[in-house]
Design goal:
Elements: H1 2-30, H2 33-38, E1 40-48, E2 53-57, H3 58-72, E3 77-86, E4 89-99, E5 103-114, E6 117-127
Parallel strand pairs: 1-6
Antiparallel strand pairs: 1-2, 3-4, 4-5, 5-6
Length: 131
């Protein structure tokens, strides 16, 4: 019985994590920096997964990065094609349109939540050829 209870607790946390990431992405799609940052942990980190390159560290850095990104890409929009969640880890398969000069990007986005906030976001991105 304990195992089933533990599995049910994990399933509930996964659903909560998935909902938090959905609200986070909704704020991103509205390009609402303040709302977007409200879903980030104070020690937020973002990186490009396969390049092992840090995009930003901390909320101040995140505000600068995403304020610029939203300003420079007014039609930026992310469509979540699929999502899986396991406890505090959420993985999205995303299509990102109008990114950095109008590119269309496919991304695997990995979100790690801590205390109900996105603590880490890592991305493996590829430009989509539209020809």
């Amino acid at each position: 019985m304990k195992r089933v209870l533990g599995e049910n607790m994990n399933k509930k946390r996964s659903m909560d994590s998935s909902k938090i990431v959905q609200h986070y992405m909704d704020a991103y799609n509205r390009r609402d920096v303040d709302d977007f940052l409200s879903f980030m942990h104070p020690d937020f980190e973002s990186s490009l997964f396969d390049e092992r390159r840090t995009l930003c560290m901390g909320l101040k850095d995140a505000r600068t990065l995403y304020s610029n990104r939203f300003k420079e890409n007014p039609d930026l929009f992310v469509t979540t094609l699929g999502r899986i969640a396991n406890d505090n880890i959420v993985v999205d398969n995303q299509l990102i349109e109008h990114f950095d000069g109008g590119k269309t990007i496919r991304a695997i986005s990995i979100f790690e939540l801590e205390d109900g906030l996105v603590r880490r976001a890592s991305f493996a991105r590829r430009v989509v050829s539209l020809s």
